[in-house]
Specification:
Radius of gyration of chain A: 21 Å
Number of strands of chain A: 0
Oligomer: heterodimer
Low-confidence stretches of chain A: 1-8
Strand content of chain B: 25-35%
Structural class of chain A: mainly alpha
Structural class of chain B: alpha+beta
Mean pLDDT of chain B: 92
Distance between the termini of chain B: 63 Å
Largest sheet of chain A: none
Distance between the termini of chain A: 69 Å
Number of helices of chain A: 14
Strand order of the largest sheet of chain B: 1-2-3-4
Order of helices and strands of chain A: HHHHHHHHHHHHHH
Low-confidence stretches of chain B: none
Helix content of chain A: 55-70%
Largest sheet of chain B: 4 strands, antiparallel
Shape of chain B: elongated
Mean pLDDT of chain A: 93
Order of helices and strands of chain B: HHEEEEEEEH
Chain lengths: 317, 131
């Protein structure tokens, strides 16, 4: 698709504006991540607020390192997919303040969609579960990242942005910026932040997201702006009377990075091998995490229903 | 041209990972949760499997793990994971037992929950493993 210059813009200048390559913000942020983790460890040691566990931290950081390796090995394929879709773009959107503001909002919405589906459909959960497998919640947990996400299609959630016409580099830039933003909210040492809680995803909101308490399940999927959860009905505030319990419903019995990275995928494969019909196979792969033909396993919905029933029974008593 | 820079970044990250883990260890973040007695195991079962009834229970000699056969045919396992405890319930048919000199090993069909060994396991568990 040829660039369509607007008033005052030559084709060459439009091409320049479309092909600008921004800095890799995640790489630049790594030293800051390390420094902040050290600072948080010292603070936790001194104040006893929050918690760290050496083996858990080592596992989280190994997952982050593996994620970086996969990005180097497979990142080219993702960029190629972006570029291929970009060839069919609907508009030529240049690098400009207005387009960057729009892209920031669109990327944050795309992240919300990706993140929500990653919790609601086992195919995507099998990758995303990695990030939730720590029973601790600290800055180290932020780096506990999937090795299989982009290999199994997570990048498709951002393709509509490229199809609209946002340059791939701009989408990748804001995607990286979102990841960097989300680092600092993985902490127990920061309480609530007043009016900022209305607009932004904060440590308080994200603690709820990482909690396994029934009333906190499947909530607060936001990346940077919490407005999407408020708009789409998935917002749940943190309550002092209900301290978050971190981890997953079926906590892992291992700090081994390979087990952390692959356990849900192998569980899915085992289920698929046992499936007796196409419906069962689809349910195991694309149903909610915990789905089973006879409903004997726990899902978020069944856990919430059981919790609501127990609460109702207690209220009646 | 870009690869060396990425390799340098990876090598630096690997050093940072090792350093941070060592720093956490040096700061004393290495406590071990213990399942001290049958009461603690019962509390875990009550929290994770509300309404479940324990038929038989056994604890590892050092408190690193515990197991309970539930009345509904499932096996509840608890395992120390650093300062936390990880728990899981499996259908009894999916749990493989193996008698060892120092106790009983339980294996599960779940990559996320590797084998658990109960040292000085109770007689009922050794009998199940031998069966």
């Amino acid at each position: 698709v040829a660039a369509r210059p607007g008033r005052g813009l030559t084709s060459a200048r439009v091409a320049d504006r479309l092909s600008f390559v921004p800095p890799d913000v995640v790489s630049y942020a790594i030293p800051v991540f390390v420094a902040l983790i050290v600072a948080e460890m010292l603070y936790v040691r001194a104040s006893r607020r929050g918690a760290y566990e050496a083996a858990d931290t080592a596992a989280s950081l190994c997952m982050g390192l593996g994620n970086s390796v996969v990005k180097i090995l497979a990142g080219g394929a993702v960029v190629a997919a972006y570029t291929a879709v970009y060839a069919w773009r609907l508009f030529d959107i240049p690098w400009a303040p207005w387009s960057m503001a729009l892209c920031f909002l669109a990327e944050d919405l795309a992240y919300y969609g990706f993140h929500r589906i990653s919790h609601e459909r086992r195919w995507f959960w099998a990758s995303h579960v990695v990030h939730h497998t720590s029973q601790h919640y600290n800055l180290g947990t932020a780096l506990r990242q999937t090795w299989t996400g982009n290999l199994t299609g997570a990048f498709v959630f951002w393709l509509p942005l490229v199809l609209i016409g946002f340059p791939p580099a701009m989408v990748l830039f804001f995607s990286g910026l979102s990841l960097v933003y989300q680092f600092w909210i993985h902490t127990e040492v920061i309480g609530r932040l007043g009016p900022l809680e209305w607009l932004f995803n904060t440590p308080s909101h994200h603690r709820v997201h990482h909690a396994t308490n029934p009333e906190y399940l499947d909530a607060n999927y936001a990346g940077v702006l919490i407005i999407w959860d408020r708009l789409f009905g998935s917002f749940v505030p943190e309550r002092d009377a209900e301290p978050p319990v971190y981890g997953v419903i079926s906590n892992l019995g291992s700090f081994n990075p390979l087990r952390i990275a692959l356990h849900e995928w192998l569980g899915m494969l085992r289920d698929l091998a046992r499936a007796r019909s196409l419906r069962e196979a689809l349910g195991y792969a694309f149903g909610p995490p915990g789905w089973s033909p006879d409903g004997s396993r726990k899902t978020s919905r069944s856990i919430k229903q059981a919790w609501a029933a127990r609460r109702g029974a207690r209220a009646l008593a | 041209v870009k690869l060396p820079a990425e390799l340098v970044l990876l090598a630096g990250s690997a050093v940072a990972v090792a350093s941070l883990a060592a720093f956490a260890w040096l700061l004393g973040f290495r406590s071990r949760a213990r399942i001290a007695d049958a009461g603690e195991l019962a509390a875990l079962v009550a929290r994770e499997e509300p309404g479940a009834r324990i038929v038989e229970a056994g604890l590892d000699a050092g408190g690193a793990a515990a197991v309970a056969w539930l009345a509904d045919g499932r096996v509840f396992v608890a395992k120390s994971m650093g300062s936390r405890v990880a728990t899981r319930s499996f259908p009894a048919a999916e749990v493989r037992l193996r008698a060892r000199r120092d106790g009983v090993e339980l294996r599960f069909a779940d990559l996320g929950f590797p084998a658990v060994v109960l040292r000085r396991a109770p007689a009922w568990l050794r009998a199940r493993a031998a069966a």
